[in-house]
Amino acid sequence: xxxxxxxxxxxxxxxxxxxxxxxxxxxxxxxxxxxxxxxxxxxxxxxxxxxxxxxxxxxxxxxxxxxxxxxxxxxxxxxxxxxxxxxxxxxxxxxxxxxxxxxxxxxxxxxxxxxxxxxxxxxxxxxxxxxxxxxxxxxxxxxxxxxxxxxxxxxxxxxxxxxxxxxxxxxxxxxxxxxxxxxxxxxxxxxxxxxxxxxxxxxxxxxxxxxxxxxxxxxxxxxxxxxxxxxxxxxxxxxxxxxxxxxxxxxxxxxxxxxxxxxxxxxxxxxxxxxxxxxxxxxxxxxxxxxxxxxxxxxxxxxxxxxxxxxxxxxxxxxxxxxxxxxxxxxxx
Length: 333
Hints:
By secondary structure, the chain is an alpha/beta fold. It has helices spanning 23-33, 49-53, 57-66, 85-105, 121-133, 157-166, 179-186, 192-210, 213-216, 226-229, 235-249, 258-265, 276-286, 302-310, 316-331; strands at 14-20, 70-75, 110-112, 114-115, 140-142, 170-172, 222-224, 266-269, 291-292. The protein has a single domain (14-331), classed as Alpha-Beta Barrel (TIM Barrel), CATH 3.20.20.140.
């Protein structure tokens, strides 16, 4: 991709989890939700809508003001995953075309992740191939569960097979918890985004590891926001208790430690977690080469997030890696 002007320190800031919407997606979500906004509906009303719809000059002006050089755009959760399969496929094509147009119009400022319906895995795989090979998009966004099912289910694997074959990452993004987790997590008003989303999406990632997805698709690369949905900070405990529990249950263990799959097949983004202590811990646990900056625009205040990120103590090499180099490698920018 072309190059925007470098910052004063010579480092470009690439932000990798930045939402957008198209009017057709809002109308579909409104239809499914009966027009009632909620944590399940996705963004169908409210102050975020104008910024989500702007994938042009207004967004770029805000990026300029806030010190963000490049945004990697993805359709805001829940994307197309609540729709009937053929409706979801049609909406995916429209959204990917619209995103590709925005990237083409601003190639030095935007890149994009495709959307493809897990609920139509064979056709979704073909749409992902079209979006990457013909439209130039850089990966796939999946908003956690689809109809309360996870990507550990083999019926979804054509989509993972396509991502591995195309050598593009799958960004596993949160949404409201699946039915099996909903009651226990959603009864605490005020804790949905800060806790329930992490439990939902971190559980999804662990299910993929436990099901042997990365034995079947060893080159598949995943991205988790929010510094890995708490998983990096639990890897030692997971590794410690995993053989004990496998021994109790008598099940066949994975060939590798759970943490080894995480370190080889996952990269994390700082979205919603641009705080010094957890970022420093994540660097110690994973290394800067497995971490990317994200602002989570417009769900977070981009200016505030950039300021918080810039205040985190790190070496110049660490900052360059997290701000720019990891994203360039993962998304092949």
